[in-house]
Amino acid sequence: MDDKENQPPAVRETAPLLNNGTQSRLVSFCSQHKRIIIPLAIMILLLPLLGLLALRNGHAHARNWTSPIIYPSPEIYGAGNWSEAFEKARTMVSKMSLEEMNNVTLGVTDGSNGCVGVSGGAPRHGFPGLCLHDAGNGVRNTDGVSGFASGLSIGASWNHSLALERARYMGAEFKRKGVNVALGPVVGPIGRIAQGGRNWEGFAADPYLDGILGAQTVVGLQESVIACVKHFVANEQETNRNPISTDDRTILSSSSNVDDHTMHELYVWPFQDLVHAGAGSIMCSYNRLNQTYACENSKAMNGILKGELNFQGFVVSDWVAQHSGIESADAGLDMAMPTTNYWNERQLEEAVNSGALNKSRLIDMATRIITTWYQFGQDEALPLGSGLPSNLLMPHNYTEAKDPASKSSLLQQAIESHVLVKNTNSALPLGRLKVLSVFGYDAIAQNTFVPDSRLFPQSWEVIGLGLPQLNGISSNVPVPDPPIIQNGTLIVGGGSGSNTPPYISSPFEALQARAYDDETAIFFDFVSSEPAIVASSEACLVFINEYSSEVWDRPGLADSASDELVNNVAASCNNTVVIIHNAGIRVVDAWVENPNITAVMYAHLPGQDAGRALVQLLHGDVSPSGRLPYTVGKQASDYGDLLGPCQAHGSSSPQCDFTEGVNIDYRSFLASNTTPRYEFGYGLTYTDFEYSGLRIDVNATATTEDADVAPVYVNGTTNDNQNNTAVVVGGLASLFENVGTVQASIRNTGDVAAAEVAQLYLQIPAASTNTHSQPTKVLRGFQKMMVQPGNSADVTFPVRRKDVSTWDVVRQAWVIPSGEFLVFVGKSVLDTPLTGSFST
Ligand code: BGC
């Protein structure tokens, strides 16, 4: 995030939260609403008393969740294809003074460019430092770049090659702007809680889908720059994400309390795939993990990331997520951003001199950073942030970063972002209409899109935040209403994951252009909640959205104003089509069963070509091919404890117990036998597909009780991995080897061409040691294929050893459990016409 210093005096998030302009709006809000604020303030002041009680329980409880200490920090040794870069870095670092090494590890203030972080250099040796910049959905806060479809939209695409193509174009834009490290992709949060504010930045509420799409993204980005995979780890909510200091106490960041089994099979799972894909850097997160801050958590960074996953790159702190000096270095943190109070005055150098820090650790920190710089060709990069002006409102040279060749990909991303979930009476495709009505605040482009110096540099990022939300954030009180973007179509979420589109193709503009071609008469009203409906309308399109942003979690899964609008239109129009631009799960049961509502489309966050893509889908120029990357419940309560963030409840040490284990999203619905409205993997198109011919050819042998299990990193010497030929970057090589395939045939039985997303789910028998979460089906393969009408195609799901393994907490190893593996192939987690099994 941007620097947002000078917090309101009473309650302050210790990490920067809001900038000056925002604060002055807050202050004026507070003075206008004294009558509400004063009682609220009294309540807040009383909270510490309640807190004392909760604290006693909290502390007793916290003892059950602790994070082991894993020292020393595994050193980089140039595993696999990192060896050449490592040798070059080693040579350079061997000539550096301790002061220079110290300097390489920290963020420095550099006002000459717009990089969100600049690391210290060692100019005497030719290392200029690094420009780090947001984020995973495109270059943020500048001109001359593209507004790509967001992570959630790529999740909805279920398309490996599209994820790769998008990342290639995106990486090239970062490079042309002089960025060395693109701060993305996001595979944490995964989406444990339905209302999570940042779920949209990542791909899907499933570790397998995240792992596959995230790995493609890493590969694509790293053709040009270094990817920074974030946020490591179990960073599942925004509420209490940073410590909050009041006058008399500090409320710590929430502690994600996660057991070892869940950690491996859910939260670390995608990170492992992305490290295996070669990720150059990892961002440690704001939360505490089993009581210890993620950026000083030696179990997470030394033990899991650099040990078990044999990560060779560097770990950078999330912005102001560093809370200690020597401890964080010892725990495996390599770079502190955007500045640091712990390492900035040569403290690391002094610690080495005094013996408080091992010299080898400081050498390792610098070597990891410089190795990564060489590994991804950054020694030949443009000057730091050369194309990123620090202030777009001041005169600057324009640097064009967009590639005309990316246009078709950007449109395709927007198309595949859409998931059609209801289509009765063949309402869609629309065909050529004589009269069309268009309603809803989300149909048009917002009426300003210029940098806003009072808020964040781009007004985009907080556009949905009304003052109640801002007030809620600053006082850490849940915000009252799920926010919507009132006057404009939603193409990206808010905060550091937002991007900067060069233009916005709004639905209404694109519909108008189509109306010209089709000679359609359009009536519209984007303002009224009860618009008048011209009786000759053949269809009524209603556009609504659901906004979400970094810093806060959504207070609900639907807003009543939008529901009211939809119901009002449907009351008078018997062919009502609802399009939702949603930055997260949006429930629709307030109206979805109304027979006048004939079609519903989740459009997600399509980026700059939102309208253009939608119109092609509505008119059947292309068939919808997105599938839900999360579960839509019938009502908010269907999500149970996984609906919203856990709260501090007056404690200074908020505790979030992840007691559901691996059963989040669809696994939670399956485990509790709850029927969702629309299940994970679901989505309609304009044709039908028939499944047949299941072939299972998996050759996996159960790991016997007395077998020598493949070793993972053991707490001890830093050479463990180097001497272990079974280990590659990403962990055990064998985990990534194929143990077989599952195949099936699909046939397009309709009369239009369309892409099908065939999905493989396995139900894996539990290992005898892992009894606490009921095993459910889990996604273990998917393939998207375009099939012409009447044609058939074969789909093949390669199955890796990882995909049939479970983490054995006693043996501290991945094992193949013994028993019957159930196999399900089909169109969604609940619609799997082909079933079979294999045994180990
Ligand atoms: C976010 C990161 C982001 C960083 C830099 C932090 O607040 O959590 O995702 O990359 O700011 O803007």
UniProtKB/TrEMBL annotation:
Domain of life: Eukaryota
InterPro entries in the cross-refs: Cellulose_deg_GH3, Fn3-like, GH, Glyco_hydro_3_AS, Glyco_hydro_3_C, Glyco_hydro_3_C_sf, Glyco_hydro_3_N, Glyco_hydro_3_N_sf
Compartments, record wording: Secreted
Membrane-crossing segments per the record: 36-55
Gene Ontology biological process terms in this record: cellulose catabolic process
EC number: 3.2.1.21
Keywords for this protein: Carbohydrate metabolism, Cellulose degradation, Glycoprotein, Glycosidase, Hydrolase, Membrane, Polysaccharide degradation, Secreted, Signal, Transmembrane, Transmembrane helix
Residue ranges of domain Fibronectin type III-like in the record: 756-829
Gene Ontology MF terms: beta-glucosidase activity
Catalytic activity: Hydrolysis of terminal, non-reducing beta-D-glucosyl residues with release of beta-D-glucose
Pathway: Glycan metabolism; cellulose degradation
GO cellular component: extracellular region
Predominant subcellular localization, coarse grouping: secreted
Family that this chain belongs to: Belongs to the glycosyl hydrolase 3 family.
PANTHER family documented for this protein: BETA-GLUCOSIDASE (PTHR42715), BETA-GLUCOSIDASE M-RELATED (PTHR42715:SF5)
Protein name per the record: beta-glucosidase
Organism placement in taxonomy: Eukaryota, Fungi, Dikarya, Ascomycota, Pezizomycotina
